[in-house]
Design a protein that fits this description.
Helix content is about 35%, strand content about 15%. It has about 475 residues and is α/β, with parallel strands linked by helices. It starts with 10 loop residues before the first helix and ends in a 24-residue tail after the last strand. The model is unreliable at about 1-30 (pLDDT under 50).
Length: about 475
Amino acid sequence: MNHPSPSTPSRRGLLGAAGIAGLTVAGAGTAMAAPAGAAPGPAAPIPGSASMIGVPYAQRDTVRIGIIGLGNRGASMASGWAAPPGARIDAVCDIRADRATKVAAALEEEGHDRPREFGGEDTSFQDMLDEVKLDLVYIATPWEFHYAQGKAALLAGANVAVELPIATEIDEMWDLVATVEQTQNHLFLAENTCYGRNELAMARASHGGLFGDVTSGAGAYLHDLRGLMFDEDYYTDHWRRTWHTTHNRSFYAMHGLGPIANAMDINRGDRITTIRATATAPRALADYRERFMPEDHPSWADTYIKGDLITCLHDTDKGRVIRTEHDVSSPRPYSRINSLAGTRGLLEDYVPMGDSGARVYVEPDHADDVWRSFDGFRDEFDHWLWQDVGEDAENNGGHGGIDYLLQWRTVQAIRLGLEPDIDVYDSATWCAPVPLSEESINQDGAVLAMPDFTRGQWSTLRQGIDSERKEMP
């Protein structure tokens, strides 16, 4: 399929003309001023040192990995972290020591060297960091621990992959950015949705000019978690449900924002300038409790304040609009929306059409107001990771293979000494809507300024997740 170039040059063409290896990045600058009409953010930037934009991982032949947090998520990811060539899990840790023993034994049964075990105390993670030299620390604890544990791992000399979000407050995000710059170790959000086959193809199609000049996008985390949140054995100490009693915010904004940001080159030629948020009434969890929970269930002590549906709208410097949604409380089929629109057409994901489950309408291929399956375009713009590693990913990883692709690619990037697909600046930007959505909701949907975590370097066009094909060593 041949597609005419949009009115502005495509990202792929610009990167090809400039030569990715020849792109340079200036030193750390100051944060951008708030856009006109936007209220300032709740925290000022923390001074850093040398920027980590464009800085590759320190190359390692063997990637020594430690895992902090071995509940449902951490335990399920352990085998995947041990599977890529050159990866080795040297340490596992959980405040519940029996979990560390269980995961260590499972890895040994799979044929891996048994990792060292740490646990039993809330400081056990620090013992692991002090005693074991690690190249990568993966953090999968409840959200409130991510910031402190991520910072500690950076200071211990490791790169860090953090489950969503990297931190829960803006000042914590700025501190992680500054700590990355000071230690020269990378920290990134382990956002598996960015490695979905449709999401990667959407980004490559966008960069290739399929949609023309991209003008808007939408992403989401719409997932009925009611059964799991009321299951006292699934989320330890019902930590996830408890967040619904303490904050009215979009807890997982990054799940939908990350893939759209990749397709729009956010922090790589454009930036998000503002956020405004709305929330519906918090009714669905109480309704579920009323219908299904016995009178002695601990949830009857809860008062839910998090709205069932949180919607955020973002403006970008280039005049684009991004919508994200978060709803884990209502009865509904799963969706992340994944929609992108431009001057030449649009894509909509999570629809029952073709093998891809997505549909498109693009000019000049279509001119009859009839949707077409995304299948053919997905084949055309399929990311090399899915072509080369997709079969292994579907056999080795959860969530349809996207977990393993994230793990495989992270190990590969460290072993080759490549730049991370997702850096701390992306991670902080995608997580900032978590606290800022609450600030906006509390101010009746006020428009707030989004922090520029790149300190003014967002306009530099550079490589991201739409990466060049590389062989695993």
